[in-house]
Amino acid sequence: MAPKTKYSKEDIILAAFDIAKKDGLDAITIRRIAKQLGSSIAPIYVNFKDIDELVQEVVNHTLEIVKQLIIEQNSGHPFRDIGIASIKFAKQYSVLYRDLIMKNNPHMRHNEENMMFVVQQMQKDPVLAGFSEQELMDILLKMEIFQTGLAVMVANGLLPEYFTEEKMIEMLDNVAEDMIISTQSRKGKG
What we know:
GO terms for molecular function: DNA binding. Keywords: DNA-binding. This protein is mainly α. It has one domain: Tetracycline Repressor, domain 2 (Orthogonal Bundle). Helices cover 72% and strands 0% of the residues. It is built from nine helices and no strands. The protein has helices at 9-23, 30-37, 42-47, 51-73, 78-92, 94-102, 112-123, 133-155, 165-189. α4 (51-73) crosses α5 and α5 packs parallel to α8. The N and C termini lie far apart (77 Å). 28% of the residues are buried.
């Protein structure tokens, strides 16, 4: 008899992630993961107490991918890199983007750790020097509202064909510049 194959927690998370990126978070089931792994359901229950815990780990894995996309941009302008990474994520992982951003997902509440990661990236941007943490969070929220609309259009294929990734990045740059200038202007008046 052949020895039993063991599956690590990471193996299970990656199998669930593969399902989610193709068919969405709701498609993750214990049986479907077992089938993807070519195993029984036992290794999944050994590593996770329930499906919600596993789905949260898939979301956490996805957030790590987003962070990596931000870091990979490395343009010298971290605020810009955040916007570009968002567009790239929406394009590469459109099903997950829709599940995580466009739905009221209990696994994707704005959590302090993720927000602080983004604000820390913004603090490295020379264009944003002199803004308080609260001002950066306000700029981030405004930009996120615009960027989400653009990324929704990307994820759902709603933009005209001529609207290239370069055009999207140019638009992000223009809107970000407008938001920064208006925040600086209000700050000067205050």
